[in-house]
Design brief:
This protein has about 180 residues and is an all-alpha fold. It has a domain at about 60-180: Up-down Bundle (AhpD-like), CATH 1.20.1290. It has helices at about 15-25, 30-35, 40-55, 60-75, 80-90, 95-100, 110-125, 130-140, 145-165. Helix 1 (about 15-25) packs parallel to helix 3, helix 4 packs parallel to helix 6 and helix 7 packs antiparallel against helix 8 (about 130-140). About 40% of the residues are buried.
């Protein structure tokens, strides 16, 4: 049972209606997370803005998926893991990579492993990572911009993961075939 209301376009606060209409245009449906966030027009706008900014960051589709799913799995988000599995499929990310992320397995190459390890360290240590960890990240081919882009991704996923925990957001029908639990 949800503990926060999942709004529809019709029931949403006035400030959220046009944003929800745009969500339907973009996704062909109203994602449940957007329906929950609609309870605060500002929260919905912030989440959608963070999503757009992170999606347009320095990371390619595989790297975006690594950051998103590393955070989702670490936070044990019942909604975001299946949603981002579907998103990865739409972005044509190799399903082997998605399954490895969902199952906490090693990445297919050292560069993606470094990205996963660094993301996980930043999340687990609340932004405190060692010089050795940063040096390993840089040695894998990343730079300072990617550190900041990871933090941007963490901001987006913290918003959605925490919202979904509190709301117990129902997994949308298109994502149910990717249901996940730790």
């Amino acid at each position: 049972m949800s503990t926060l209301k999942v709004y529809t376009i019709e029931s949403a606060p006035e400030g959220s209606k046009s944003q929800l209409e745009q969500s339907v245009k973009s996704f062909g449906m109203l994602p449940g997370l957007h329906g929950v966030l609609a309870g605060s027009p500002e929260a919905l706008k912030a989440y959608k803005t963070l999503h757009e900014l992170f999606s347009n960051s320095s990371f390619n589709a595989e790297e975006l998926t690594v950051v998103w799913q590393t955070i989702n799995v670490e936070h044990e988000c019942h909604y975001c893991v299946p949603a981002h599995t579907a998103i990865a499929n739409m972005m044509k990310v190799d399903p082997v990579l998605s399954e490895a992320l969902r199952n906490g397995e090693a990445m297919p190459n050292e560069k993606l492993q470094a990205l996963k390890d660094t993301t996980l360290s930043i999340v687990r240590n609340r932004g405190r990572i060692s010089d050795t960890e940063l040096e390993a990240f840089y040695a894998a081919g990343y730079g300072e911009r990617q550190v900041l882009d990871i933090i941007l991704g963490i901001a987006q996923k913290t918003m959605s993961n925490y919202t979904n925990h509190i709301a117990n957001t129902p997994v949308d029908e298109p994502f149910q075939k990717f249901t996940w639990s730790k």
